[in-house]
Design goal:
Largest sheet: 6 strands, mixed
Shape: globular
Number of helices: 3
Structural class: alpha+beta
Order of helices and strands: EEEHEEHEHEE
Radius of gyration: 24 Å
């Protein structure tokens, strides 16, 4: 089941609601997509949705519950992910290896983007 509390949380000049599932995060993501909620609205275990989307969430079938029930429902479903227990997000790309120390600049290498080949730098 999908649940939503009434828009009562101020932020960025708007009021916000919390949208949760008591079944699985996959169910929540599908519902949020139907609602048109952007992925950036997802916060560990719920979506923050602006007051303008609240009526559509209810129309799509979200059950309106008091705000105090949101965390209770998440905990009962074992879906609560508090901030202090959440893992840090991984970077979108692996970190670069440490640079090797260079004795001089004579061995500078340039990469040609069009050929993706390595050619020695021409120094004058």
């Amino acid at each position: 089941m999908i649940y939503v509390d009434r828009p009562a949380w101020p932020g960025r000049g708007r009021l916000w609601s919390h949208l949760i599932s008591d079944v699985a995060l996959a169910e929540l993501h599908v519902f949020a997509e139907m609602l048109g909620a952007p992925g950036r609205g997802f916060d560990r275990d719920h979506y923050d949705i602006p007051a303008e989307r609240f009526p559509m969430a209810v129309w799509l079938g979200a059950q309106v519950v008091p705000s105090r029930d949101i965390v209770r429902l998440l905990r009962a479903a074992n879906l609560r992910r508090p901030k202090h227990l959440s893992r840090p997000t991984r970077p979108s790309h692996p970190p670069l290896p440490p640079a090797a120390p260079a004795a001089d600049h004579a061995g500078v290498v340039r990469i040609k983007a069009d050929e993706a080949s390595i050619t020695p730098a021409v120094t004058a």
